[in-house]
Amino acid sequence: MKKILIVATGGTIASMPQEDGLAPELSGQDLIQRVPELKGLCDITTVQPMNIDSTNMRPRDWLTIASVIAERYDEFDGFVILHGTDTMAYSAAALSYLLQDSPKPIVLTGSQQPMAAPFTDAQLNVYQSIIFALNPCSFDVNVVFGGQVIAGTRAHKQRTMSFNAFSSMNYPVLAYIRRDKVVWFGLMEPDPAARTRRALKRYTKLDERVIVLKLTPELKPSILGLLKDDYDAVILETFGVGGIPDYNHHAFRRAIFEWTDSGKTVVLTTQVPEEGLNLGVYEVGHAFAHHPGILQGEDMTTETIVAKTMWALGQSRERETIESLFSQVINHDHTPTS
Predict the structure, then answer these.
(1) 3-202 maps to CATH 3.30.70.1230
(2) Structural domain boundaries in the chain
(3) Dihedral over Cα of 202, 27, 92, 185: its sign
(4) Are 83 and 64 in contact (CB under 8 A)?
(5) How far apart are CA 224 and CA 235, in angstroms?
(6) Residues identified as active-site
(7) Which of 91, 144, 146, 147 has a CA-to-CA distance to 185 between 20 and 30 Å?
(8) Hey, do 3-202 and 210-327 end up sharing a CATH topology, with the first three levels equal?
(9) How many CB atoms are located within 10 Å of the residue 189 CB?
(10) Cα separation of 129 and 148, whole Å?
(11) Which pLDDT score, from 0 to 100, does residue 338 have?
């Protein structure tokens, strides 16, 4: 019988009503006991490194979760992380970089309604996550939610209340789960032997000093100067496919170049959720395409860019190394332009 490790972290799935609203209370063991269909399916062990609202999930917590899995990696056939939905996409992306090329499945799931609620999606999500973790073709970090399997770097919370909370952004859903069967995209099952050609690569450092800045009409370029003491990288969500205002004698261009010329990093992405960045289309983006220290987010989600930037800067301060790490395709995180 296969062995699955449940890593419970809190979230809506574990929440109970409190005086001021829902808050995590149930343990991982409590949650598993509320899914009787799991009995006899596999050998389940639960651990509880934290029990928090995922709003409070931080990079140090990603490192804790990754450490729990890495330290017990050889003991189990798969791992299921019970997590709040609000920051699940960030955590899934972060684990994709901290635990790369995993030949074993590392699954994140949760629910839009607490396990204790009368009309909850929690039981089915937990059950289907374990079904996926037991599948011989499953590997790497994925989100299983609402009957869909999404690559850990492509998940984005699209809905705040509906049970189909997550979408796969700019990449196909990897599989669907129908009852207790995994139906792979295109009906083509991955080769189980592919797992044996993979070897886990673990990383233990992140640079938390990363911020996302969204362009809005009349945003002042001087804001970059206010951020320089607290942050090593700015992820700038541009207009459209990469538009950055060039009024006031290219004030934004000067501010961005000053930031990167000081040794800091800028990652340009788009605030449009689908289809990605292309700095070569318009004059207002072209000037940034090849400037040192400016990275391009291409068709990655903002959540993934945050995690990847923290990971890349955590490994090196050398500009060329950071650019090389950021350009790697990891767990389907972006579509190469060439």
Answers:
(1) no
(2) 3-202, 210-327
(3) positive
(4) no
(5) 11
(6) 12
(7) 91
(8) yes
(9) 13
(10) 10
(11) 61
